[in-house]
């Protein structure tokens, strides 16, 4: 017989506040076209992207996260000291250790909360949200700050015409806290490691890791290329279109929600054609507001869902209390989908 007292958490959890930070520099397709043979028309029609934000020197992963977190904490109506845990999802913070989460926790004035980073690519927000919900319900933290943040411009090969136009920078954050009713549904999540090679950092990274810097590829200026993200665009596209609609449907079923009950759909912002295809396959009714933030934000990986959520609420396209399906998917390959009530 165990002698350990059970931990006491809240009956349920919900998202209490959301905040976003977009770097000040807006980059139109014309800038991308300086380095690749393409056209504004091709980029818009194949991806839906017109502009994206690129971070300046001072807009670091920590700085963007702190800005987004401040807004999310204010939106939640709590004070930073009440945060019991900080989870940062990112693939573009270039220190394996220490985690950037501890610096962010300190700089927002949260005191000494648990703080750690996770790597789950474009599903990172859903992974963080699921951990946060578990912590609130289990009782190890009353309020959890979940941040999705990327500086993907640092990981973009501007001479690779398959990826140069896709990625953007930014941070989105939510506060998850206690609730008397279920406002975050069951998460349908998983991984398909047999497809781990379809989105990855380039071979240069492997060479760098064994220390042979001389073998790293050079760009046209003779400078060492930073190990950029490459992908098998079509394979990822097909996977997203066929498999992720099924996962989204499973998340609706798990939450006991029909498409008619839904107010908002916030898929990961990877490609407008993927978004359109999912809307069709899921047979979402006309009244469902669909996040199409990709047009002006590009693909910001872990930041894309909270950034899109924040913009829908800020522009009045969605409102507090709306029921939203969120689904993230990407490098791993990994995915996570759940139904939430908007803060
Ligand atoms: C990247 C992506 C937009 C490319 O679109 P696509 O329709 O698959 O393009 P393809 O790679 O099949 O190329 C189609 C044609 O356009 C050409 N092309 C490729 N990149 C181009 C560019 N930047 N400009 C102009 N033409 C281009 C190709 O050479 C090819 O020409 P061809 O038909 O003469 O051979 C798309 O594959 C995609 O969005 N994939 C998923 C991305 C994603 O979600 N990634 C992250 C997941 S988190």
What does this structure look like?
With 343 residues, this protein is of the alpha/beta class. It folds into 2 domains: 12-179, Peroxisomal Thiolase, Chain A, domain 1; 188-341, Peroxisomal Thiolase, Chain A, domain 1. 31% of the residues lie in helices and 24% in strands. The chain is built from 10 helices and 14 strands. The strands form 4 sheets. It has a 5-stranded mixed β-sheet with strand order 1-7-6-4-5, sandwiched between helices. It has a 5-stranded mixed β-sheet with strand order 8-14-13-11-12, with helices on both faces. A two-stranded antiparallel ribbon has the order 2-3. A hairpin with a 3-residue loop joins strand 13 and strand 14. Helix 3 (61-76) packs across helix 4. The longest helix is centred in the C-terminal third of the chain and has 23 residues, at 233-255. The protein is globular, with a radius of gyration of 20 Å. The structure holds coenzyme A (COA). Coenzyme A (COA) is lined by residues 36, 38, 42, 46-47, 122, 161-162, 199, 231, 233-234, 236-237, 240, 270-271, 299, 330. Belongs to the thiolase-like superfamily. FabH family. Pathway: Lipid metabolism; fatty acid biosynthesis. Residues 269-273 are annotated as: ACP-binding. Pfam families: ACP_syn_III (PF08545), ACP_syn_III_C (PF08541).
